[in-house]
Amino acid sequence: MTAASPFAQARAELSPLGFTLLPALPHNLDRPGAGKAPGHFVSGGWSGLSGWSKFLQTAPSSFQQSIWERMEGANVGFLAGTPAGFDAEGNPTKLVALDFDCRDPDAIHQAAAVLQLQALGCGLRNGQAGELGYA
Fold first, then answer.
1. Can you give the residue range of the structural domain that contains 117?
2. Do residue 22 and residue 64 come from a single domain?
3. What is the pLDDT of residues 8-39, one digit of tens each?
4. 3-class DSSP string for the chain
5. What pLDDT, in 10s, does the model give residues 80-120?
6. pTM, entire model
7. 19 with 54, same domain?
8. How many domains does the chain have?
């Protein structure tokens, strides 16, 4: 039996917390968007997941997600702007991520200051082409 895909592992842990997840193309594909773009395995190969934006309005069904879980190598994608659990007072929260594709740390930190990311409780993480701010 093959190991569970990153998508299947993430769904088991994060869906109960309220995150909306989509399968993403595996990292090891030699194509643009590998590891990041929404994708699915159809007819023996990976392709982009057309129409994925409909899940911004209506979450994928448990049935659809169970199909995605069985796609070997599926990476995990988060739908930004969708419900992502609740804050300490029980208010619904939404997932927000800002990706600054910049190699100048000063510019990244200036942008973070202008957007008041730290005041919002956001952190910064190093990415391949800069830093990622997340809340």
1. 96-134
2. yes
3. 998 888 888 778 889 999 988 888 888 889 99
4. CCCCCHHHHHHHHHHHHCCCEEEECCCCCCCCCCCCCEEEEECCEEEECCCHHHHHCCCCCHHHHHHHHCCCCCEEEECCCCEEEECCCCCEEECCEEEEECCCHHHHHHHHHHCCCCCCCCEEEEECCEEEEEC
5. 776 666 777 877 777 766 665 666 777 767 776 766 666 66
6. 0.68
7. yes
8. 2
